[in-house]
Structure formats: structure tokens, C-alpha cells
User: Fold this.
Amino acid sequence: MNALQATTYQDKSSGRIWKDKFIQGLVIFLSVVTISPIALIIYKLFVEGYKQISLGFIIENTPDTFAAMTAVANDERIPGGIANGLVGTLLMIVLASAIAIPVGVLTGIYLYENQGKMMANLIRNISDILQGVPSIVLGLISYLWIVKHVTMGFSALAGSVSLAIMMLPMIVRSTEETLKMIPITLKEAALALGAPYYKVILKVLIPTGYSGLLTGILLGISRILGETAPLMLTALGSSTINLDVTKPTSAVPLLIWEFYNDPNMIGLIWSSSLLLMAFVLTLNIVSKQFAAKRR
Amino acid sequence: MVFSLVGGAIPSFKAFGLKFIVSGDWDPTEGREVYGALPFIAGTLLTSFAALLISLPLSFSTSLFLGEYYKGTRVARILGMLVDLLAGIPSIVYGLWGFYVLRPLMIDLGFGGQGFGIFTASLILAIMIIPYATSLSNEIIAMVPNDLKEAAYSLGATRLEVIQTVTIPTARSGIVAGYILSFGRALGETMAVTMLIGNTNRVPDSFFGTGNTMASVIANQFGEADGLKLSSLIAIGLLLFLITGIVNGVGKLIIKKMT
Amino acid sequence: MTQTIAEIKNPALSIRDLSIAYDKNYAVKNVTVDIKKNTVTAIMGPSGCGKSTLLRALNRMHELYENITTEGKVLLHEENIYDMSTIKLRRQMGMVFQRPNPFPTMSIFDNVIAGYKLNGNSLKKKEKDEIVERSLRDVALWDEVKDSLHKKGTFLSGGQQQRLCIARALAFGPEIILMDEPTSALDPIATSKVEDLLVKLKEHYTIILVTHNMSQAARISDYSLFMYLGELVEYGKTKNMFTNPKDPRTEQYLTGKFG
Assistant:
């Protein structure tokens, strides 16, 4: 009787072990499938993109479609580059940061100082909702606010505002979380020295949480760097370098969209994407590195 | 924000009333302009839902890999980093890759036509939301207390049985919330979908046919829009805002309840 | 009520009928005490007796929390501290905390003069050097750190960090130093160094010390104050209190019946 039970038990257990191993193998296989697109995408970008990358690509404006067509017909490198896009992207990111960082950090400090209060909870929830709003809707909002009422036309400012709204919730959250991790005794020590409150924030809390804030800001920037949709509704694009924030401006992702729609410019798509990816991923890795260092 | 969206959408709602949401007609011909959002609402929900289903086995496996099987190992760190990188790729690059790599593949595989359509768009969307779903459920899975799992192991359970009986039930609502939030993200994705869905303004008739989503119709038609059409696009933006708001709200609520 | 006010002439600090409540729960009830100049006064009592609250009320740090009500007065040079600006008050009352908390972004040097920096007082280089050296010598840290003044304060050992924090409190030239269990996070050797330091410091400063540790109070304090459930039970010379406690509750505490 006992022996019989033991054998049936054994049989069942070997089936269980087999099933266990099978699922583990499946998990490994599917995990590899999950990350394969990243390798495939980067591979494609490199193979197709490297031949256009040159100094000229970075410092020249976009060619007109005829010049590109001629070059393609003669099997030459397409002339020109994406300088207008690079400058536009830089301009809008600086402007968006100038809007989002102060507002975001101040809001984060406010939330930190008013834990559990109605108003703070409301603001935190609004910020959370904002984080989930699709970027194209933010583009629409900036269109309604800025394009229609402030700059009376498509503009870099409108693009920056839509990007700033995108960054804002990330900065608010990372500010609050960073401040929460600073031991309260540090704040008390500074106050016990008779320091006025704003100095405590400026000289003690912000320097101590510096790397946390920076991580949030860099991640915010890497998120908006590749954004295309909101810019289509706000900054529109421009074929020359533009530094006037009230005028239409190009951006690297916008140029990719234009190249994609112009059969003569296909050759530029991959190199622009390669460059954009390089920026985004570098920023991403750098900011994660910052975050890792803090732990 | 809501206020200005509503303001911009008023002319359209005035003209079409509730029919705006349930009507399938979208005709910009002057003189008999009719705009209804149904094709786009349907397209958005269909692609996002399909994307969710496609991403489910992949992201769930990956989060088990990261949060359970190889938790804390070097391999998991590298895999986690790669998944994070997936989140860093701009939407437009996904679109390009989908257009030049995935679409020809679809044609070769015999999905018909140009390779555009709901299915192709869902596929690229699935890849795009994998990192969100993975990192959210990975965090929750990794949080399942070890002593619970050890209790199950000490009773002779295999790893799979521990996952089935302890890890998943404990983390269930968090995992669900993670997928709801990823769904919310898929709803608003614009560029990659615009480049792959085919952009036909009708209610999709088949899963492999073409269609359009709320986000991509705004992106596509905004340039040439004014008057009633512009207002209708803004109205679609408002609807998209509300839908994503509700979906995200539900997801966040579940997470808040858990912690 | 304990009768101990009369014997102290020219007190450093006079506490009069001080009551402090959190949400209507009194943590400190009707405390009246005079603190003698140039002494170490220990505040003792079991956890939750209100000793930390009392200490924090003396430089108004307790006001950092919500829903606090304060009644009564604390007189410093005949002036009620609750009518003074906190900035002015806190310059005259240095504070040292349970755990060493040097500012992690500042060097040792900058930590010592942090009080000046945070108040926006600009000093000449020579003044700074003088203050830093004097303060560090006062806490017997100068010889240990004089070659690494510009390194981060957080690299020091726990005991050194705590002495650095005391130097930070001294640098401003306060009259009174409030200490909230300053040795509770230190090892025995570091503790005895800090204790020796306190005995030396009372030549120039008045020290009020919250401690959990009865033998510490016996070793270094001149006066002791025993609190129980927010009330001041007994106050007097430490020697007398330890050898001949008047109140049965004090006796029970000192003999280890509770606490």
C-alpha cells in the first residue's frame, strides 16, 4: 500500500518537474523575443543610416526636394543635413525646460511640504492625470492656447509649451520623491541654525537631492526629445534655422516625418533617426546612471 | 485645459450633437460636411486592445524573468536595461521601422494588400507598450514577500506552482493595473500608428483591414483643417483625453488601493 | 508642584506654565522650571513622557508639525521666546540631534559655518578660518580633521560627525545648546568623548540635554528634571535626585521599575 502510493507520487512529481522546466524555458524564450526588436531596430538604423552621417549632415540645412532627387538619380550622397532640425530641437528643449523645471520643482516642493492636505492631493492627482494625457492632445491644447492666442501662428513657443506640459509631471514627481528621501533631521538641523525657510530649501534640500532632481529632469528631456505629434500641431516645421520663438521651427523628429513623406528624401530618414536615437538613448542611460549612483 | 478643449469642440458638438460619437460618416466635402468620430473610436479601441493581447505573453514572461526567475542577477539587470531602452525609442522611429521592416514582412506572410492596417499597427503598438507593462508588473511581482514563497517551497511546490499559487494571486491586482495603464498609453500613441494603420476613415471591417485612430486622424488631418473640421478634430482630442483619463484613473486607483 | 525655582538666581532660561498639545492631546503639561546658567541640565523620563517635545519647544522646532498649540511662556533675557522671531531665537539656541546629521553636500569647513551661510551672513576668509578653527577646537575635533577640512563631512566616523554637528551649533556663539539624546546613535568610546566634551563646554554655555540613559545623566548633569506623562515630576540637583528622590515615581524610574 505504502509502496504503491510512493510510486504514483513519483510519477506525478516528474510530470510536475517537466512542466516547471518547460514553462521556465518558455519564459526565457519569450523574454528574448521581447527584447529582440531593440536589436533589430538599432541594426536597421545603423545599416541604413551610417552612410549619410557626416559633418555636413549636422551643420547644413535640409535640401530641397529637387536637389535630393538629382542626387538620388546620380547615385550620390544627398546634399544638406538637418541643422535646422537640431537647432530647433535644442531651442524648444531649452525653452520647455525653462518653463517646466522651475514650475515643476516648486510644485514638487509644495507637495512635499503639504503632505496629506486636500489641495496638495488635488494637485498631485492632476499631475498624475497629466502624465497620462496623450502627447497629441497636449499638442492640441498648446495649439488652442498659444498658436491661436499668443503667437498668432505656429511657433517654437507653442511647441515648447506642449513639451513643457509633458515634462512637468515627471519633474513634479521626481522632486517630491527625492525630497521625501532626504532625512527630516537635515531640514531640522538647518532650521535649528535659524535659517529662513527659503534658504533651507535652496542651500540644503535642493543640493542634497540634486542628483535625484537631475535624473527626473534628464528623463523628462529624453521623453520629449523624440516627440513628433505635438510639434506637428504647434511648431509645424521650417526649412531653415530659426531662432525666433514666435516663428515656426523645425525639429529632428519633424524632419523625419517630412522625409518620410517625400520619396526623394528617404535616404535621410535613417541617418536622422540614428542621430535622434543616439541622443535619446545616451540621455536615457546617463540619467539612469545618475539614479543608480544614488542608491 | 479641459475648458479650452471643450471650448474648441463646441461648434462640432453643436452641429452634430451626440451623433458625433455614434456616427460613422466622415466626409469633408464642402457643402455636405459630416463628421462622426465612431470610426476613430473603434479603431483606437481595437488597435489598443489587440496590442494589449499581443504584448501580454511577452511582457508577462519578461516580468517573471526579471522579478521572479532571475531576480537580482546580472542577466536580469541587462535584460531590464534593454527593456528600458525599448521605452526610450521615439514613436516616429518605431513607425519607420514598422513601415520599412514590419510592413514588407506582413506582405510576404500573405496578410494581403499593402501590409498596412489594424494588425500591423497593433503589432508595433504591442512592442511599444511592452516596457511599460513589464516594468509595472515586474515591480509588483518583485514585491511579493519572500517568506510567502518560501512557505510554498517548503511544502514541496515547484517554482511554477509557487508562481501560480503565491506570486500571481498576491500580485494580481497590481499586474492588472499595470496592463490597464499600458492600455491607456496605447490609446494615445500617434506617430507609429499613423504610419501603419492605413488611415481610412471608416469603421474597420476586418482585423487585417485598414482603419484610423483618434490620435492619428488628428495628426493626419490637422494641417488642412479649419472651421467645422478643426472643431471636430478638437472634439476627437477631447474624447481621447476623457477616455485615456478614465482608463488611467482606474489603473491608478487600483494601484493606490494596493499600497 | 515641585519647589525648585527659587534657588536659581539669574537663570539662563525660565519656563513658565508651558503646555504643548498635539491635536488637543497634551504632551507637556504646565511645566515651570528655571535653568541655571553654565550647567548641564538633563531631562529624563520614560519614552513618550514629553521630554523631546519640551526640548524642541525651547527653540520652537516643535512648530514644524501641524496642529500644535502652545500655552505659557519661556523667558530668555526676560523676553518671551514665543514673541521673538524664530530666526533670532535659534541663533541663541544651538541644537544637536539624535543622529549625527552633517549636511551631505557640504565640506567639514562649510558645515561648521553653515549657520552663517544659511543666514546669508558673508564673512571674510580670515573670520571664517577663525570660527572654524575655534569651533572645531572646542569640540576637540580640530587635530583630527585639520588636514581634511574640505572633504565631505559624511566621511567622518559617527562620533566625529556628531562632534562636527556640535561644532556647527557652537559656531554661531549661542548661549544655550539643546541636545536631543546626542549619544544614542554612538558607540561607547564616541559617547564618552562627547560626554567629556559637554562637561568642558558648560564653562561657556548652558546645556540642556534630553537623555534616555540614567547613568549618563548621573555622570554629567548638574541638575535633573524628571518628567512623566507630560508633567514635571521632580527637579533638582542631580546628586540629590539620584540619592534621595522625593517623588515615588522618580524613585520607581531610577530603580528601573518602568521606562
In short: Chain B has eleven helices and two strands. Residues 38-69 of chain B form the longest helix (32 residues).
